[in-house]
Every structure is written in structure tokens, then in C-alpha cells.
Amino acid sequence: MHISDPRPAAPCGGGRWAWLLCLPLLLVAAARSADRSSSDSGKVGAGTYARAERFLYWNAAKYIKNADVDYTWIGPDTFTYARQTEAGREFVVVDAAKGTKRPAFDHALLARALSTALRRPIDAQNLPFGSFAFEPAGRSIRMSIDGRDWSCSLQQALCAVAAAGERRDELVSPDGKWAAYVKGSNVWVRSRKDHTERALTSDGQAHDAYGSVAGPTGLLGISAALRAGPPPPMAIWSPDSKRLLTDRFDEREVLDLNLLETVPATGIRPVVHTYRYALPEDGEKHIGEVELMVFDMATGKRTNMQHERLPAPLLGPIEVDRAWWSNDSRTVYVIPQEWGAKRAQLLAMDANTGATRGLIEEQSRSYVEIGGAVTTRAVRTLSDGRVIWYSERDDWGHLYLYSPEGKLIRRITSGPWKVFDILRVDEAHGRIYFTAVGRETGEDPYQQHLYSINLDGSGLRLLTAGNADHEIRFPTHEILRKLEPGFPGPEQSAFSPSGRYFIETYSRPDLTPVSVVRDADGRLVQTLERGDISALKAGGFTMPEPFNAVSADGHTKLYGTIFRPSDFDATKKYPIIETIYPGPNEKDTEKSFVPALWGRWFRTQDLAELGFIVVTVDGRGTPYRSKSFHDISYGNMGQAGNLEDHMAALRQLAARYSYMDIDRVGINGYSGGGFASTRAILQYPDFYKVAVSGGGDHDLRLYSALWLPTYQGTSKEGDYDDVQNARLAANLKGKLLLIHGELDDNVHPAQTMRVVDALIGANKDFDFLLMPGQDHTMSGKAAAPYYHRKQWDYFVRNLLGKEPPANYQISHP
Questions:
Q1: Which residues contact residue 474 at a Cβ distance below 8 angstroms, ignoring those fewer than 6 apart?
Q2: Which of 412, 660, 643 is nearest to 547 (CA)?
Q3: Rounded to an integer, what is the distance from CA 629 to the centroid of its chain?
Q4: How far apart are CA 695 and CA 792, in angstroms?
Q5: Is the pLDDT of residue 36 over 90?
Q6: What's the Rg (C-alpha) of the chain?
Q7: For the residues of 308-350, what is the DSSP string, one character each?
Q8: Quick one: which of 60, 116, 121, 792 is 20 to 30 A from 510 by CA?
Q9: Model pLDDT for residues 220-267, shown as the tens digit of each residue
Q10: Residue 32 has pLDDT above 60, yes or no
């Protein structure tokens, strides 16, 4: 291998040692020449795998600078963020009102202070933290480094270890005086002033506990819970900090599931993990029930919700953001998750008496969505008790205004398009700010925009003009941020605290991101950053291509994206890999640049780099379109997002582009996509020749009691035989690789084992990999690279017909 000139071009920056920044790109380029001879001999070289490795999700920041702005509001209209420069990273402060941008602090001074405190050299252009917070008075900042909190003066080179921050297993009241937590099976509170503590409940017990996540792990997953420790209580403080809403989750009638950890962290004996998990065929007798209650901090008084216990097929209403306080702290609102989801009801509970009344009720022959499968982001209660309610009653998703007594006042939005989230309500001016899809003509209908409208339905205004997907950040409720760190809080909301400005990032799969500040009327105030893909271009890169095709019904338009290898040659023939997720809860095709190329589960550009044309497309029965478009999958989950639509789209593309080989089609998917990829090769074995299935829910009778009754109908209504891939095992003709994590408590590994058992019974050749210690995230430092490499190898051998590089080692941070 010979590199004639190691000096890089401009994209890698200047300076004596700047060529080192380009070393990965130079190695990829040098390996490319070696790959040519390997390709000619029927092998795929390591250089090709290195190009693919660029598009694994953990490498995104290496190959695109300033893809978005990870901002934090620090004043009414000021915010901070870290921008990537040629030399490293710079923290800045932006004043949206003045349109100014300046360094957030003296980076050199802070580097000197940290070097002294940490006793190691610190580079001012690569400070060892990704975010920080100004402390009161703005004279010092606080950040986390190596698992410890530090406080650093901005006037002098001095840093010191800071007092421990807020604990993950506690919820702190808005006034900062109280911390709520779970001890045993009961909810406790602690005074943050004198550290005295007291129990709010005393009769909680296993599987009938207060403030506990559903099951022993709930949203966390078994292996994540082992790493992360105790979760916070399922509770919400009232805005005035005087009351605490919590629940009692009764799982005593829910039946057990077990997972076997074969290689535990300590000891040699395999460990059995048991957790409560309701299945669709268990019937209502064996699902959880939730009782809501409010505790008064001054008196300790407990006020129970005067209503029958609420059904909880999977999680409680607090966990999934279906419960919230009124602004005046007098009322609790809740939308229960009902068995089968054919009804959504808004309940209002008086926090003083517990008296509960039903305000609004929505029904459907299939299922009711309230601005999303499990959230309430398109429902808001106003200070005067009026309610903004989301409904798909006219086949589209729109907003309606109701009185405090639950009477319809008027509809607010209308037309053949769909509202998503309400970001802000300006009650003083009677204006709503919300995201929606499908309204702008001439655009992909899945692209999101921000709009505003008056409460009386007048004055609709588009705030984010431009043919692109507009990312508008929505804050996540506190419990989810505690359970899964990284979700945005109120200080990361798109709108400034004053409401006068908002931040957005817009892009498409074929348009690099641009982050801007706009005023509340949508006027551009300042362009913050433009995504820089120089590193990708230097190593070779072909932009994806959004496309549309016609579904199998001959008239419905479908939308998707094509991904090609960096060394694409239109005179060659390329096998096709479809990456699939069938819904019905989420679309498959990402509409913005970074998720499209670096999506965590939907493999696209990395597979394309190996020598494939990769396609994603959303068939009928998936969300983000009309209710009737979505309902095509209701009771027909075995269609896996209308596989006939997927095949129709691929045939049209192959007729359009001569380099696509329709006789060599593979398919790849994870979770629901794992079900779909296996269903595809079993149901259409003459079309799909190779399939890889990761974490697949191959038998939905073994999945959550929330899922199948909602999208297929209850066991009395829906056909549960058609959601079992094992029934089609005898159809296998091509090559199938099944992968599953042994500690997957979301999609139990028994689902894959049932397919394995059926394939053995049918005397079929197939491949199977069980990943020790991995849950549904498949995120282990060794497991994640191995998981991806096995997929690559499988498609290279069986679809491309070549030999992969032996034991290629994918790097993981």
C-alpha cells in the first residue's frame, strides 16, 4: 500500500500536523485501490468495510460537522451551544433578539484551570465536556467530566469538584424544596433543606407498588436496569410544589416472563430474570391496573382518584405522558390507555377532593390516536379550563377546542393534512404553535413544518418555509429524561422562554442540515450553522435520492429513498437491499439528512457502501398520512406494512434504473422490521432471496398486550394466527439470518426461537445468532460492532456473491 502524498486538501484544516486529521480518509482512499483487485478476485476488501463503517450511528459526528445545534436556553432570548470548528469545538452564546454570537467564555483560561484540577493537559479547542450550565450570577459554569461534577470560575483559572447534582432516582419539586423517591414499594419525600425524610405510603408491596415503573424494569430493559440502578418514582409535582401526583400499579394478576442471562457479570451460574409482562391473549384479567392519587406536602393528606382503576396493558399513564397538572395546581388530567384503544377519554380529577369527571371521549372502529401512539403532545388544557383536543374523526389529524365542561366550541384546523405536536400555546394572544405534515403542495407529504393559528381557527401561518423536513425540538417530560438521559428538557425546547424566537434545523436525505433562528412569525433572524460533509466528500460519497412510486393498488403514491455506494458506477448491475420497518407506529423512511444516513436501526448507507443499492419505502398501513391510509394495516398486521407495495416500488425502480438487479433482492430489518424481513422471505420466497432479521417480533402473541389488541384487534376480534412467522417456515428458499439478544425484555427471544424451532421442523437451512447479555438496544461495546459486521458479511456472501474481509474489526467508541 502506497500513499504518494500524505498532505491533505483543505477540508482537513491547516497546520503542521493537520494531515493527521485526514489519516482515516487517506487510509480509506488508499485501501480503495487494494479493493479493486480484491473485487476482481471475488472478494470485498477492508477498505470497502471502512467506507461502510463511516455510516454506523456512533460515527456520525466524525463525518458531518454541525449537523444540528444542541442548544440550551439560558435567558429569555439567549442560548448556548457548541459548534465544531476546523480546530475543534467552540462554545458560544447567541442573543436572538440582538442577532449576535460570541464565545461563551475564555476557552484558554478554562483549559488552564481544568489542566490544574484534573492533573492532565487539556486542549482549549477540545474541552472534555459536551455541555455545561451557567451557575447563578453567571460568574462560573458547571459541567460533568469523567463522572464527576465540576464548578469552574470564569474570572480566574480555578476549578473545584462541585456538590453532587440532582440524583437520577429522585424527582425534585419545582421550588427545589422537596425530593420524591421510591424506597421499597412506597413513595417517600425528603426535605432538601434539612434532609429529613418521610413516607407518603406504607402499604405498597411487590407487584402492587407505589410510584414504581411497570414490572421491575419497565422502560429500562433488564440489562439497562442492571447498569443504571434505581429509576425515579412515577410521579409529577404540581406547578406550585404543594402536591405530588403518583400512582399505585397493581400487577398481581399479570403473568411472568423469564429471561436467562447465560454469562453474568459476576459468578458462573446463569441468572434467571423474572418480570411481569401482559400478553395479548391474557385477556383483561391479566393486565395491570393503575390507581392515581395526590399527596399534600403540608399535611400529608392522601386524595384518591374517585374512579375505577385505570387499565394499563403495558405502562401507567404517568410513564407515557398521559397525565398532567393544570397550571393552577388544582386539577389532574389523564387519558387512560384502554384495552384495544378503541376509545380515548379525557378525565379531570379535583386534586382536593378526588372527584373525577369525564370531559371528552373519542371512539374509533379501529383505534384512537391522540397525536401519537402513546403520548398527549397534541392535547393541551388552558388556564381557563378549555381544552385543545386532537382527533382523526374526519380522516385527518386536527385540533378542536372544547369548553371546560367538555362541550365542543369549534374546530381549529382543517384540510387534507395532519397535525403532529403542539409546541406552545400563547394564551395572551390566543395563538397555537404546532407541527404538521402533508399540507405543502409539491413536497414529500411526510416532511414536517411548524405553523401557527389563532384559537378561533383564523390566521393559519406557515413558519418554516422551504422544501425540507424541519426539525422542531419538543421537550420530553421529566420522568422519561430520568429514565433515558439525552432527551430534551424545557431548556432545550424549540421556543425561547419569552416565546419570541425559535430554533429549527431543516434538511432532506439529499440536503445537508441548516440550523437557524426565526422569530415567532417565521422570519429568519440568523443562520447558526450549515452541516459540513467535507470529510465524507473527501472519502467519496454519493447523495441519497428521494423518490416516489405507485403502490400495488395502482394509484396510491408511495415515498422512499435510494442509497448508492460512494463508488457508484451506473454501467454496473447492483443487488438491491430493502431496509424495512412496517409500522404501524412509525414510518420507515427518514426525511432528514442525519437520521436517513446514520439511523440507529434502519441500515441504509452503510449497506450501500458494500456494493448494494439500498431502498427504503413506506407502504400503505403506515402512519403520518390519513387515517384511512393508516387503517389499511388494522387487522392485517401479517401484511408487514403491505409487502406487495414494497415489491411494486422495487419493480418500478428497477425499470427506471437499469443498474438495479431485480433478480437479486435482499431485505433487512430490526424489531418490527425483523418480523417484516422474515415475513418477506417466507411469504414471497421467489422475490426476496436473502433476509437478515434482528430482534424480530415474529409472533405478536408474545408481544405487549398494548400492541396487538390496538393494531390487530383484541383476541375476540382479530386474526392472531396470521401474526406468526413460524407458520410459514416451510416456504423458505433463500438465505435467512436470525439475530436476537438473550436479555431482550421488549421483544422476548422466544419469538425468534419459535421461528428457529419451526425451521428445524421443516428441515430448512438457516443461520442463527443469539447475543449473550444483550437487550433490545443491542448496544454492548463488543456486541454492537459484531452485530453490524455479521449483517454485512451475510449480505456480501449471499447476495453480492463475494467473500468479505476475514474477521473485520469494527471500531466502537
A1: 377, 421, 423, 488, 493, 494
A2: 660
A3: 23
A4: 17
A5: no
A6: 27
A7: PPEEESSS-TTTTT-EEE-TTSSEEEE----TTS-EEEEEEEE
A8: 792
A9: 456 555 556 688 899 999 999 999 999 999 999 999 999 999 999 899
A10: no
Pull the grid cell for residue 670. 430490526
CB-based contact 673:679 (threshold 8 Å): no
CB 718 within 8 A of CB 712: yes
Rounded distance, CA 404 to CA 648, Å?
A: 50
Q: What grid cell was written down for 601?
A: 436501526
pLDDT band at residue 217, thresholds of 50, 70 and 90? very low
Task: Output the pLDDT for position 196.
Answer: 94
What span, in angstroms and rounded, lies between the C-alpha atoms of 475 and 494?
8
C-alpha cell at 470: 424541519
| Strand duo 735-741 + 767-771: pairing | parallel
With beta carbons less than 8 A apart as the criterion, state whether 757 and 769 touch. no
Model confidence at 219: pLDDT above 80 = no
Cell numbers representing residue 179 in the block: 425530593
- Name the DSSP letter for residue 804: P
Phi, psi dihedrals of residue 519, rounded to the nearest 5°: -85, 175
How long, in residues, is the chain?
Answer: 813
Mean local confidence (pLDDT), 157-165? 87
CB count in 10 Å sphere of residue 185:
19
Q: Are 290 and 305 in contact (CB under 8 A)?
A: no
Residue matched to cell numbers 442573543: 95
- Residue type (1 letter), 579: T
Percent of the chain beyond pLDDT 70?
Answer: 92
Task: Look at the block and give the residue holding cell 374523526.
Answer: 393
Task: Please answer whether residues 525 and 99 qualify as being in contact, where contact means their C-beta atoms are separated by less than 8 angstroms.
Answer: yes
Which region holds residue 470: left if phi is over 0, alpha if psi is between -120 and 50, else beta?
Answer: beta
